[in-house]
Design brief:
By secondary structure, this protein is α/β, with parallel strands linked by helices. It is built from 7 helices and 13 strands. The protein is globular, with a radius of gyration of 19 Å.
C-alpha cells in the first residue's frame, strides 16, 4: 500500500514563494497585462523585434496573434526580423506558410518587415531569393525611423567582409540619429547553445563602441537574453519566435535575464529614454525595463 504524505500549508506557501522568486529571477512571468504604458506622448519610435521565426509551427502563429494584439494597443509600425526568416533553407516557396499566413493581420495593417539574414536563409541561392522577396537592398543596409537609425548586418562569415565592416563604421560615424541600433543574426554576447561569437565580437565591438551604438539585437540562439550592458551598449538575444526553443546554459556572468520561452520584444524609443517589453505567446510580459541612448 502506497502512503500519501500531504504537504503542510506552511511548507506549501514557502514552496510557492520560492517558485515565484525563481521564475522572476529567470525572467518568467505568467500571462499578465502590459505593466508599462506604451502610448507615451510625443513622437516616439515603436517597433517589435524577433528572430528564428520562419518555421510554420503553431507557436509562430500564436506569437503572431500576440504581435497583432500588441500592435492594436501600441500602434507600432514595423518589425525587425533577426534572421532564419524561412526555415530550413531560405526557400521562398515556403514563404506563404511561414511568413505571409502567420503575419497576415500585421501585413494587412501595413506593418513593414525589415529582415537580416540568418545562417538558414543563405542555403538557397546565397539568400538572393529572400532578398528579392523581402525587397532588401543588400546584405548590409540601413533605414531610419524618427530618432532612430537601424543598421542591418548579414553576420554570416561569407558576408563579414572588410568592405562591409568599413561601410558599417562610416555609416555609424556619420549617423546623427539619437538611437543607433544594430541588428544581426549571430549574437555578439550569448550564454545559450551557440554561445557568444568571439570572432564577430572582435570585429564588431570596437566599431560599436567607437561610434556609440545604443542597442544591438540578435537571434540564432533560440531563447531570450537581456545582456548586462557592455560598455554603454544594450544587447538582446531574441531567437524564440517560432523555431524550437533551446535551454539556456549557465548565464550568470553576462545575462541580466535569460529564459528559454517563445517570445518577441516590443520597443518604444523617445529622444531621451526608451522602454522595452518581452512578451510570450499568451500575451504575458516576462521582462521589461527602460533604456537610455548611448
Amino acid at each position: 500500500m502506497i502512503s500519501k504524505k500531504l504537504v503542510s500549508p506552511v511548507r506549501l506557501a514557502v514552496l510557492v514563494a520560492l517558485l515565484g522568486a525563481a521564475q522572476k529571477a529567470y525572467g518568467y512571468e505568467a500571462c499578465s497585462e502590459y505593466p508599462v504604458p506604451m502610448r507615451s506622448p510625443g513622437d516616439r519610435v515603436r517597433f517589435i523585434a524577433f528572430g528564428d521565426s520562419g518555421s510554420g509551427f503553431p507557436e509562430q502563429y500564436r506569437l503572431a496573434e500576440q504581435m497583432e494584439a500588441a500592435r492594436k494597443k501600441t500602434g507600432f509600425r514595423f518589425a525587425v526580423m533577426l534572421g532564419d526568416n524561412i526555415y530550413p533553407r531560405g526557400d521562398v516557396a515556403l514563404a506563404a506558410e511561414r511568413f505571409e499566413k502567420p503575419y497576415a493581420e500585421l501585413l494587412e495593417a501595413g506593418v513593414k518587415f525589415y529582415p537580416v539574414f540568418g545562417n538558414h536563409d543563405l542555403r538557397t541561392n546565397d539568400g538572393r531569393d529572400e532578398m528579392a522577396y523581402f525587397r532588401m537592398p543588400d546584405h548590409w543596409y540601413s533605414f531610419k525611423a524618427g530618432d532612430a537609425e537601424f543598421f542591418m548586418l548579414d553576420s554570416n562569415w561569407s558576408h563579414m567582409t572588410l568592405p562591409n565592416l568599413a561601410w558599417l563604421e562610416k555609416a555609424l560615424w556619420t549617423s546623427s540619429a539619437r538611437w543607433k541600433i544594430v541588428a544581426l543574426h549571430h549574437p555578439v554576447y550569448s550564454a545559450a547553445g551557440h554561445r557568444s561569437s568571439r570572432w564577430r565580437r572582435l570585429f564588431l565591438e570596437p566599431i560599436l563602441m567607437a561610434n556609440r551604438a545604443s542597442l544591438v539585437l540578435s537571434g540564432h540562439d533560440h531563447d531570450y537574453e537581456r545582456i548586462i550592458p557592455q560598455k554603454g551598449t544594450y544587447y538582446f538575444v531574441s531567437g524564440g519566435a517560432g523555431g524550437k526553443i533551446r535551454p539556456v546554459r549557465d548565464s550568470h556572468e553576462i545575462d541580466a535575464v535569460a529564459t528559454a520561452i517563445p517570445h518577441f520584444i516590443l520597443f518604444e524609443l523617445g529622444k531621451e529614454e526608451g522602454q522595452f517589453q518581452a512578451i510570450n505567446s499568451c500575451g504575458g510580459v516576462f521582462d521589461y525595463g527602460s533604456l537610455k541612448p548611448h
